[in-house]
Specification:
- The chain has 177 residues and is of the alpha+beta class.
- The chain has a ten-stranded antiparallel beta sheet with strand order 4-3-2-1-10-9-8-7-6-5, with no helix packed on it.
- It has two domains: 2-34; 37-176, Lipocalin (Beta Barrel).
- The protein has two helices and ten strands.
């Protein structure tokens, strides 16, 4: 009798353990394919017809070139200027959750912390912009969430801005060149 109980327990152990062992080995051998973060690299052109614009002046990038490495994303932007021309600027952000500081418009300082969604398909930029206007120090909070369409041809930037002047939400679409 004891041999039947032991052999039954052994089968249950094998039946339960083998799937877990297989899953564990798969995670070790293929971690990149299961948890790969989206790569936003490329040259992107603003597509107004696919975008949802908020109120106020349109100061979003008309084009951007993104270069992404494991823990760093660099963005070269072309934006309209207040004088009617265009201005170029560059930004760099760490992708490890540490604060990055970039220069914003009109001498402002932009402090940003990036974070990935759980599935690594969306990248969030939590920005705090400090600036001075009429001798008074002010602050804006901006939350950008980047995602790429399944076909890899459209980058969407959903933005939510909060400041003393109120709240504004946009969804900007960029086509891959």
């Amino acid at each position: 009798m004891k041999s039947k109980v032991n052999s039954g327990s052994g089968k249950r152990f094998i039946n339960v353990t083998l799937p877990f062992l297989f899953a564990f080995v798969s995670l070790i051998l293929f971690p990149g394919s299961l948890l790969a973060q989206t790569d936003f690299s490329g040259t992107w052109a603003f597509n107004e017809s696919k975008s949802t614009l908020g109120e106020g002046p349109m100061m979003s990038a008309t084009s951007m070139t993104v270069s992404q490495q494991e823990n760093l994303i660099s963005i070269d932007l072309v934006q309209p200027s207040f004088e009617g021309g265009e201005m170029k600027r560059s930004e760099k952000y760490t992708l490890d959750g540490k604060e990055s500081v970039n220069e914003g418009m009109m001498g402002s300082s932009v402090k940003t912390i990036t974070s990935w969604s759980e599935d690594k398909k969306e990248l969030r930029f939590a920005k705090t912009i400090a600036f001075e206007m009429d001798g008074q120090k002010m602050e804006m909070k901006l939350d950008d969430v980047w995602s790429i369409s399944d076909d890899g041809k459209t980058l969407t930037v959903k933005s939510s801005m909060k400041s003393e002047w109120g709240e504004m939400n946009t969804a900007l679409a960029y086509d891959k060149k």
